[in-house]
């Protein structure tokens, strides 16, 4: 990191991303049956596997974002997950209702933008305010 403020900014970015996934994951847990039904209605294959995996990715991924644990690999996993959910859950190209299609387009591109944020975290790492930084080997001072 080139500036002292970078760690704080990366922490804010991690927290901002975590809110969406923690909230969504917890809502999936609380309404698990409805979530499974939604996936079935969308034609998602292997719903019995996809539903618990999606829920776990969101809850565990959200927690890891907050604490800053394994952020580089998590960034890649979350970027892939977010693009997959955009394609499967916001398939605007299959929607004929103009208002609903407009909404789906916005959500699709929102997911693409979020995936971009995750790719940035993959490159930058967790920053100084993180478990990753606490676990990193210390360089001797000269």
TrEMBL record:
Main location: membrane
GO CC list: plasma membrane
Membrane-related topology note: Multi-pass membrane protein
Keywords: Cell membrane, Membrane, Transmembrane, Transmembrane helix
Top-rank taxon, per record: Bacteria
Entry-linked InterPro entries: DoxX, DoxX-like_oxidoreductase
Compartments it resides in: Cell membrane
A UniProt-annotated Pfam family: DoxX
Transmembrane segments: 7-26, 46-67, 74-93, 113-134
Membership in a protein family: Belongs to the DoxX family.
Protein known as: DoxX family protein
